[in-house]
Amino acid sequence: PGRILQGHRSGKACDWWGGRWQEDLDRAAQAGQNTHRLSIEWSRIEPNPAVWDDSAVDVYRHILRGAIERGLTPMVTLHHFTSPRWIAEQGGWTNPDVVARFERYVRKVVGSLQDLVDSWVTINEPNVYAFSGYFTGMFPPGERSLGRAFAVLENMIAAHSAAYRAIHELQPKARVGVAHHYRGVMPLHPSQPLDRLMAGLRFSVLNEFVPEALHRGIFRALGRTFRTPGARHTQDFFGLNYYTVEHLAFDLRRPLSLFMRDLYPPGSDLSGTGFIANEPDGFARAMRWAAAYGLPIFITENGVEDAADVMRPRYLALHLHRLWHLVNTGVPLRGYYHWCLVDNFEWERGWTQRFGLWELVLETQERRKRRSADFYAEICR
């Protein structure tokens, strides 16, 4: 209570569980899309420890089969921020036992769905989950401890590694990766050493911790060395989530934010709530940065919240132009997933941010096409 803007609740969200997935995937297919990224809800599959709900598995089989029948190849995420209540009651992702529990759940899902899916994202944005839940306190459980945030990251990396091996044991030809949240960071005043220091620190911890741990099995941050040897080379592709670039300044008045103040410079092209700045050059930098890991790249998320759909068309055009350019210069981009098809519940920001190509009318579940939907369809075709 009091943690979600305007007291919003998710309710049925887009009501895919009630069957609305059919019309939404019809729209995606009719709009020239050939793939769709969706997630599995752990608490539906395993509502209690080691108690499986096979009827929930059947619902997911139905959705996945429906996607394939529409010409949409599924990419499935196994953990997208939410965990079963019983996991939370046992300490959530701060408890090292979660690694074995996550692997058990992954084995159940992949064993049940492997004939329909061969592209898996184990965990969505572990950096966002750890720092938003355990450092800034914006996500559940609302803690503010940097040490706990790093502990969660270490457990998520271990869980991904265990899941990676389990998936390849069950499905040797599967493609497995993580969806990494990349936050573009620039010093507000490039001539100021402290601004450059803060920007470099934020970039290193937020953007590089997980990829470095999964690539090299080691990461150093804030004077500490984190060793994750079992995680080396546990990605078959690099999943990249990109939205914007923030500018950082050193600020002595913000000790709880590690003396960092983030903002967008005056004149920035901002989304409806000022949450995202239209920074396509940052997207190009992010893709080149990801390419250095030597893996095929999937843009697993890219988009903008814009209820009025005024900024989205130019955001789309500029970002996809950068992507087109890099494809044609040899960057190993293999796919692009726009965030998102229909408006979604945005965690602590509730329904105040609308990312959908289609508007969701909460009271009626009606879908209303935004003009960007047709523009994106032309690009897809």
Structure commentary:
The chain is of the alpha/beta class. The protein has helices at residues 16-30, 42-45, 54-69, 85-89, 98-113, 126-134, 146-170, 193-216, 280-291, 312-327, 371-380, and strands at residues 35-39, 73-77, 119-124, 175-187, 218-221, 224-227, 238-250, 260-263, 297-302, 333-336, 358-361, 366-369. It contains eleven helices and twelve strands. The strands form three sheets. Strands 1, 2, 3, 4, 7, 8, 9 and 10 form an eight-stranded mixed β-sheet that branches. A two-stranded antiparallel ribbon has the order 5-6. A two-stranded antiparallel sheet has the order 11-12. Helix 6 packs antiparallel against helix 7 (146-170).
Class from secondary-structure proportions: alpha/beta
Spans of at least 5 consecutive residues with low confidence: none
The percentage helix is: 25-40%
Sheet of most strands: 8 strands, mixed
How many angstroms does the end-to-end distance come to? Answer: 45 Å
Find the count of extended strands (DSSP E, 2+ residues): 12
Number of helices: 11
Integer average pLDDT? 95
Write down the Rg.
20 Å
Strand content: 15-25%
What overall geometry do the principal axes of the alpha carbons give? globular
N-to-C SSE string, H for helix and E for strand? HEHHEHHEHHEHEEEEHEHEEEH
